[in-house]
Amino acid sequence: MIYKSFKDIKLSRLGMGNMRLPSLGEDKWNSPIDYAESARMIDEAMKGGVNYYDTAYVYQNGDSERCVGEAMKRYPRDSFYLATKFNYRANPDYKAVFAEQLERLQTDHIDFYLLHCMTERNIDNYLNCGCIEFFEQMKKEGKITYFGFSSHAQPDTLRRFADAHKWDFAQIQMNYLDWEFSTTEEEYNILTERNIPVIVMESVRGGRLSSLTPELDARLQEKQPGWSVSSWAFRWLMTHDNVLVMLSGMSTMDQVKDNLRTFDKDNALTPELSSFLIDIAHEFKKGFTVPCTACRYCTPHCPMKLDIPSLLKVYNDYKYDRRWENNLKDMEADKLPSNCIGCGSCMEQCPQNIEIPTYMAKLSKLHETGKEE
Ligand code: SF4
Ligand code: SF4
Predict the structure, then answer these.
(1) Domains of the chain
(2) 342 lines ligand 1 (CB under 6 A)
(3) What atom of ligand 2 comes closest to residue 291's alpha carbon?
(4) Which of 69, 154, 275, 339 is most buried when burial is the number of CB atoms within 10 A of its CB?
(5) pTM value?
(6) Model confidence over 50-96: pLDDT tens digits?
(7) Which ranges of the chain would DSSP assign to H, the alpha helix?
């Protein structure tokens, strides 16, 4: 495992994201977490030298924090760092949330504490509700070691938030696709200019960069035999000096093992390989239309209980290779996109600002007529 210094500690460059832990039932999003398999994955990560474990109050309906607490209590508390987050929208009572998190995680302190998913819609809530002062007080009392935030905001909002407090670190969505086609480079520069180290989320864009298209995957593999497609994304991130930890939301033991191989030594891409990857990204983007990261912030707010990220994935599959019907064929009637009533509740939650009802309508039309428009 490779490490990077942060203040007076060393962090593993790979961080284990615990928002997609394996579940017991068929419905992987609403079934309880498989604690035993998750613990085995965490054991493998610990054995491989990972010392950064990220969760949040809202992940997997709160079960992620409980599961991480159970798994980590078997290790000496000074052998790993815990990161978790306060989400204003989920519960604005920051004192109660923090107390509950300590209990769920079975710990007396959180090493890395974040305000979760700062956006244009909640920036003033975070700045004015008193939580920053409270968490600073927790820091003074030793219950929080480092205090930061995660952002899905546009650059101007990020700039405003970054200047509003002395943050120890910040977490942003960063990967080669968003760097090339979104505002990530500007966001990274805003933090770097302020000496705020970056924790990366969505390194492989919710798994989307783990497999591009069969043709593009083959080109990557031909260029560097033995490298997984995901590992290209991490090796690209390693070329950025202000990146501290790269999170990967792992769901299977195979992913843990593949990630450990990637982080075995400093494997940053050479300039030639970076430029090769960016060419691949441009080809990929031609067919990549909906930038959904499968964070699932939207789904609890859908009155029709639609599995929005899965439906958006169907739409993207259609865009890639026109193979989409099979994905809807076995879907229960009440889960089809035609059930969308266009209420827009989902959009209020979406950090990617995706016009979800528009895509539901397109997909519904596709389903009915075989044509998008
Ligand atoms: S707009 Fe459609 S997908 Fe979004 S919350 Fe409303 S019903 Fe659900
Ligand atoms: S549509 Fe937006 S909120 Fe919903 S899963 Fe995708 S990125 Fe997340």
Answers:
(1) 3-285 (3.20.20.100), 299-369 (no CATH)
(2) yes
(3) 7
(4) 69
(5) 0.79
(6) 999 999 999 988 999 999 999 999 999 999 999 999 999 999 999 99
(7) 35-47, 63-72, 94-105, 123-128, 131-140, 155-163, 176-181, 184-193, 214-223, 229-237, 253-262, 271-286, 308-321, 325-329, 345-349, 356-369
